[in-house]
Amino acid sequence: MEKSNNIIAELNEKYLHFSNKIEECKGLESNLEQKISNIKQYNNAIESTALSISLENDLAKFPSQAIGSINLYNGLNEKYNNFDESQFNKIIRFVHLIEENEKTYRKTYINFTKNYIQSPHEIEMDVLFNIKDKLDKFYILLGILVKEVDGDLVLFNKVYNQLEDAGFFMSVPEKVNQEYLSQISQKLSDVMEGLSAIFKSLEESNVLLRNIRQGINETNSELGGLNASMWDVSWELSNK
After folding, report:
1. Which of 19, 27, 36, 233 is the most buried (most CB within 10 A)?
2. pLDDT (tens digit per residue) in 36-84
């Protein structure tokens, strides 16, 4: 009887021992899971910080706003008498389109500079790049119309006709009815492609076209005699 009691006591002791070990292991497992969770959070924070730094470097390469329409608007006013009324009214529609894209660029830029630290994964730099690329092409085309209306009339009319054929002079209701706005990037690419051969053939005698092909229009565009800055390259990130 005494021997049985000893065995039972020994078994109870071992049971308690292993029960305590099991509880200790549960605590270790919970602690390990918490540490793994913390490590994941740290890694995510590091990745987000690295992405924010990369975005800041990218944003610093972009101008804060597009202002080309202002300078080209002034050029149009100066040369108003060289246009016929129908041409001028259609070109003003093109100016309005450019102004709307400038507003979109500015809104996108402000949104990105406000949120690239808090929400870096929501920032798509391709969006800003594509708007800027579109505006650069707009400025080239409108700049040619302003510069060459009393100069190279062949070039002026070729650019004007390409823009008209692509629908850039349509009224807003006409553009909406044809779902034009969703196709504008492709239409602009088609215009530039259609003019590429013309640009190449005329560039030897046209300083503006040589400058375009050499990339001088990137931020400070001369556009012939306009001497206009198309972009505001001021730094704004430090204020966000």
Report:
1. 233
2. 777 777 677 788 888 888 988 989 889 889 888 888 888 899 999 999 9
Global pTM?
A: 0.69
C-alpha to C-alpha distances, 233 to 63, 64, 65, 97, 106, nearest whole angstrom: 4, 6, 7, 22, 12
Question: Model confidence over 162-172: pLDDT tens digits?
Answer: 888 888 887 76
Q: CA 172 to CA 168: how far, in whole Å?
A: 10
Residue 221 in 3-state DSSP? Answer: strand
User: In the chain, where does DSSP find H-type helix?
Assistant: 2-59, 68-78, 85-115, 125-148, 153-165, 172-177, 184-202, 207-213
Task: Please check whether residue 126 is in contact with residue 137, taking contact to mean a CB–CB distance below 8 angstroms.
Answer: no
Element (H, E) at 232: strand 231-232
